[in-house]
Amino acid sequence: MDTVRSRVVVLVVAFALLCGGCAAAGPVPVVAPARDVLPARVQDPAPASNRGAQPDCGDPRASLRPTGGPPAGPAIDRIRARGFLVAGVNQNAYRVGYRDPATGELAGFEIDIVRAIAEALFGDPGRVRFAAIDAAHRVDALQGGDVDLVVRTMTMTCADARDVAFSTEYFTANQRLLVRRGSPVTGIEQLAGQKVCAAAGSTSLDNIRALNPGAVPVSAPDVIDCLVMLQQHQIDAISTSDILLVALAAQDPHTALVGPPLKEQPYGVAMAKTAPELVRFVNAVLARRSADGSWTTAYTRWLSTILGPPPAPPVARYLPE
Question: Is-above-0.85 flag for pTM?
Fold first, then answer.
């Protein structure tokens, strides 16, 4: 045993003598700078829009007039036979359409609208399946039959009215700017050569190009991705509707809304153009919510803390028949 111990001691001493200068003579480690990582599917710069020129459809806020009596038609019959409504929504827009961390359930101003439609159809606001979709896939989800309707901050435009049918207006938003607090930027005109982010497929992205052709539009799947890039100094501003921007600012006090409203953005429920009876039914639900105070109650609950006291609900506009 002593012989074995002596050999171990000799080996340890020999290793120490050989490596006594290792620390001084070894290579100096190279510390690489941290690399910024963009969120998935970000396009910087964003490609040009494929919407083309805005067609003339008259008043994009005008929709089909509700009809009295029980609703009927292929689209409503199909939904009732299935036993639940399928709605495309946002799950990342705080107080608009988001997953409540306390309950794990989707909640918000737009979620209340979906539940009201489900209750009118089935007598049960829980008879709905939510499909989280991003702005770029709202039209595809409807045309592919993946959802019955979309309630996801979708601006009523003549361009989109070629592909979907809109309800009457349920919220009037205004596009604005969100920047890091302390930024010298106070308006879109100051952002020439700088990066401005909006959701891919949104009208906000088109508006950035129109409002300041010198700005560099950056697209992301969702505006929450834009907030991450703003926090990491990868972009200079976010430009989308005020209802989304004030929600982001409420989540990050190091950001601030600046400048005047840039573009009005009326929101409507989008449905397939082949489902006029569903459009009329949804318009009846929206009209009832405006008349009985449900719209104001929902606004007060979800939006007053970030937008202030509720205004009057949007006035419904109907197509001549």
Answer: yes
Give the start-to-end residue ranges of the domains of the chain: 62-173+266-318, 174-263
d(CA 131, CA 254): 31
Q: Does 233 score more than 90 pLDDT?
A: yes
Segment 82-104 shows an average pLDDT of 96
Distance CA(120)–CA(253), nearest Å, equals 39
CATH number of 174-263: 3.40.190.10
As separate numbers, helices (DSSP H) first and strands (DSSP E) second, the chain gives 12, 13
Please tell me which residue, 149 or 39, carries the higher pLDDT value: 149
Give, in words, the CATH class of 62-173+266-318: alpha beta
Look at 12 and 148; give whichever has higher pLDDT: 148
Q: Do domains 62-173+266-318 and 174-263 have the same CATH topology?
A: yes
Residue 268 Rama label (left phi>0; alpha psi -120 to 50; beta): beta
Taking a C-beta distance cutoff of 8 angstroms, is the pair 191, 185 a contact?
yes
> How many Å apart are CA 304 and CA 140, to the nearest integer?
33
**Listed range (1-5, 80-84, 245-249) with the worst mean pLDDT:** 1-5
